[in-house]
Amino acid sequence: MSSSVLVISIGLIVTQCCQCYTVPKPEILVYKPRGFSVSIPDETGIRLFAFHGKINKVIQNLHPGDLTKEVKYPVNGKWIFHDERTKLKVGDTIHYWMFVVKDAHGYSLDSTSFTVTDLVENASTNSEMPTRIGNPNGMCSNEINTICLQSLFNVTQSFGQLQSYVVTLKKKSEQLRNFIEQSPSARKMTISGRIPLEGLASSTVAFLLREKLDINVVVVSAERHFDGSIAFEVPTIDDKLEILEAAKSKLAYTKIFVH
Fold this sequence. Notes:
Strand content: 25-35%
Domain CBM39: 21-121
Protein name: CBM39 domain-containing protein
Distance between the termini: 51 Å
Strand order of the largest sheet: 4-3-6-7
Radius of gyration: 36 Å
InterPro entries: BGBP_N (IPR031756), BGBP_N_sf (IPR043030)
Signal peptide: 1-20
Organism: Photinus pyralis
């Protein structure tokens, strides 16, 4: 989604929803030698926290910033935007706005700013930072366990539904096969075109199937028509399907036709 579309979408959501929640003023911590964090308390119903900011540059409300991220999970009771690269000093100003999705409604904290007055210890030693376990999103182990269990449940549920669908499809396939097999022409086909005009019809069909399609099958019956074509019957519908499938590719550029 482009930035302009995202901004318009956010604007519509914020405009339409009732203001029953107010995005709180965040806690902002700036670290030595670099990095900072922006956090708000977790509340029931919050599903997303987005931060958009610029350093020492004014940012307009609902415009994407140089520092942008959507946070989808809370950590230790907080929704935290964490930047590890930006090096700030006392006197620098973070201009920002925030967006929160709560109970399927969107709420924003309009463009505001924070001026750095002091620096605290590096984020890696700060107790407010999420515990890292070597994953790229910086999620804590409890979050990952929850996500994995939910994913496993979803996969298991989907597999069960798929298995049920396969069983139903198999039953319908068997019913359709039984219905087709009752038809007098279910196992009958005709071969025509440039085929031998002499010899037993059944022997001719068996020869053509073997030489042209590499299929060895019993020809139950065969009858040559006045135009030289041969109507023949094979033991099963599966034999018929195999012959028709092979004929599509192996007889495509010949003058022999099976139908």
